[in-house]
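Course assignment 3, question 2. Fill in each field.
Student: A.L.
Task: Predict the tertiary structure for the chain below.
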Amino acid sequence: MRKAEYRVALALPRRVAETALAEDLGVSVEALRAAFAHVYGVSIYRSLLKFRVRLVDQVLGANADLNPRVIAEICGFGYFGRFHQLYRRDTGRSPGPNVRCGASSPDGLAMARAALAATVDQYFSEMRA
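Answer field:
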């Protein structure tokens, strides 16, 4: 499961199709679905959605000055309103006080991407060891 999450994290903000993920991991789609259902008790889609929410939460936890809207976008959430609902449901809190409308600066986007990369590196450090 960690390898699947890692593949998804590396592809962000793009989404990874179940078939591509299964092929990349060398298993059938059915086996991948069964593994996710067994380990997480939910579908691949729901599990990876929750994983992306956790990534946003970890990035924001370590970088409170970053714009949650930008972090959500680079983690593959296209519509912030829906992301906000998912975040509140999964964490029990709002994404943060720094929600601003409009596009962020190029510097802010670069900082957000760097923060996500650092979080992914830390989260999956044992896989590269």
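Instructor remarks: The domain at 2-128 is CATH 1.10.10.60 (Arc Repressor Mutant, subunit A). Helices lie at 2-11, 18-25, 29-40, 44-62, 68-74, 80-91, 106-123, 125-128.
Grade: pending
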